[in-house]
Design a protein that fits this description.
Strands 1-2 form a two-stranded antiparallel sheet. It is built from 6 helices and 2 strands. It starts with 10 loop residues before the first helix and ends in a 16-residue tail after the last helix. With about 170 residues, the chain is mostly helical. The protein is globular and about 60 Å long.
Length: about 170
């Protein structure tokens, strides 16, 4: 006789609510990290552009728009602002004279590196307060979440941080 009760019908909803609450807390931490890195105002949308360019060096505006799910004019304006801040540069494509490639500048790369360091330090402080067992469970849960996300929408993730995750 099986002594394990069937998973609660409420379990997926409870997990979703817990994940939402965690994401909201992380958003607060992320904003705090952005404030600590620089006085340069970078919007959440512009930060998505920087992350995309970091992963897809040399992408053109059209492909970036598709990746972000944004209209070309809005992507172009965001890149204009990031270029004015010195975070992005447009360079001629070696493939086509009519195309421009988008690249992070040294300043843009330094901004992302500092931001990631601040955020990682904030996470590390919390994770270090966890027991080894809960850290391992968190890693398993996050890895499972990433795998499910990739199955659901493979274009959403391209070699992200959990792909390099190590045991806690």
């Amino acid at each position: 006789m099986d002594t394990n009760p069937a998973p609660s019908q409420r379990e997926p909803q409870e997990t979703t609510e817990a994940a939402r609450e965690l994401i909201e807390l992380l958003e607060v931490m992320w904003e705090r990290g952005r404030d600590m890195v620089s006085s340069t105002p970078v919007s959440a949308s512009q930060l998505r552009v920087l992350y995309s360019l970091d992963r897809e060096e040399g992408i053109n505006l059209r492909a970036l728009g598709e990746l972000l799910g944004s209209a070309p004019p809005s992507v172009s304006r965001m890149c204009d602002r990031l270029e004015a801040l010195g975070f992005v540069q447009r360079l001629p494509s070696p493939v086509s004279r009519r195309q421009l490639e988008l690249h992070l500048t040294g300043r843009g790369k330094a901004y992302l590196r500092d931001l990631r360091d601040q955020r990682e330090n904030a996470l590390l402080a919390v994770i270090n307060a966890m027991t080894p067992t809960t850290r391992k469970a968190l890693l398993r849960g996050l890895t499972g979440f990433q795998e499910a996300l990739e199955k659901e929408s493979p274009s959403q993730r391209r070699g992200g941080p959990l792909g390099n995750a190590q045991s806690a």
